[in-house]
Amino acid sequence: MDALIPFTTSGSLVDLVDKKVMVILRDGRKMIGVFRSYDQFANFLLDSCVERLHYKLEYADKDIGVLLVRGENVVALGEIDLIAEDMVPLVEVGLKEIEEKINAETKRRERDQIVREKVLSTMGFVNEGREGDAY
Question: Partner of 60 for a Cys bridge, out of 4, 38, 67, 95, CB 3.0 to 4.6 A?
């Protein structure tokens, strides 16, 4: 009877071995690679791994190689449908170009945050936490 109960622990990862997966980490990075192995703590090994950088409908892949991911850093893990992957409306651009766009966007957001904090502080609001403090 116990054999009919689906896995609810890291044992459920056995179906993903040797398949292409995407992993979203706590810091927001997205890793794509071939799922090779895992342990009881949901630590796992990705082979042929790349970090996918996005900016709007453009992307670039940064080659990582072999990556050991600690289970506590994983937010989401999913298999990539190899057929549907080709139909995604993203345009591949150069790594340097996408990094420049991401850096410019990050600087713009930081500048906007400083202005927002100044305006809110004049109204009596205090910003004690930052995005990501919930982890």
Answer: 95
Return the structure tokens found at 53. Answer: 């950088």
Q: Is 92 left (phi over 0), alpha (psi -120 to 50) or beta?
A: beta
Strand partners, 24: 30, 76
- Sorted by where each starts, the structural domains of the chain and their CATH numbers stand as 2-92 (2.30.30.100)
Number of H helices, E strands in the chain: 2, 6
pLDDT in tens, 52-93: 999 999 999 999 999 999 989 999 999 998 888 888 888 999
Q: Which two tokens stand for residue 55?
A: 């900016």
Q: Please state, in angstroms and rounded to a whole number, the distance separating the CA atoms of residues 90 and 109.
A: 23
Q: Is the distance from CB of 61 to CB of 29 less than 8 angstroms?
A: no
**Which pTM does this prediction carry?**
0.76
**Mean pLDDT for the chain overall:** 86
Q: Which long-range contacts (CB under 8 A, 24 or more apart) does 37-42 make?
A: 38/10, 38/13, 39/10, 40/9, 40/10, 41/10, 41/71, 42/10, 42/13, 42/71, 42/74
